[in-house]
Amino acid sequence: MARTLAMFTDVSLCIGCRACQVACKQWNQLAPEEPEWTGSYQNHPHFTDKSYRLVRFFEQPDDKGGLTWHMMSDVCKHCAQAGCLEACPTGAIYRTEYGTVNINQDICNGCRYCVSACPFGVVAFNENTGTATKCTFCNDRIHNGLGPACAKACPTESIRFGFRDDLEQKALKRVDELKKMGFRDAQLYGADRNGDLGGLNAFFLLLAKPSTYGLPERPRLPQRNVFWDSLASVGAAVAVGLGALVAFRNRNEHGGT
Amino acid sequence: MEPGLLKSADWPLLIDLYFFLGGVAGGAFLIATIAHLLDGRRYRDVVRVGYYVAFLAIVPAPLLLIIDLGLPTRFLHMMMVSKPSVAIGMGAATLGPFHFKPLSPMNVGAWALLGFSLFAFLAALDVFLEDRGGRSMVRLRTWVGIIGSLLGFFIAAYPGVLLGATARPLFISAHWLGAFFLAVGASTGAAAIALILALLRRRTDESLVPLMRFTVFALVIQAVFLGVFIISVMATGSAGVRTALRHLIAMPFGPVFWLGVVGLGIVVPLLMRLRGSVRPTVGLITVFAVLVLVGGFLAKYVIIAAGQKLAS
Question: Which of A87, A121, A225 sits opposite B6 (nearest CB)?
Answer without folding.
Answer: A121
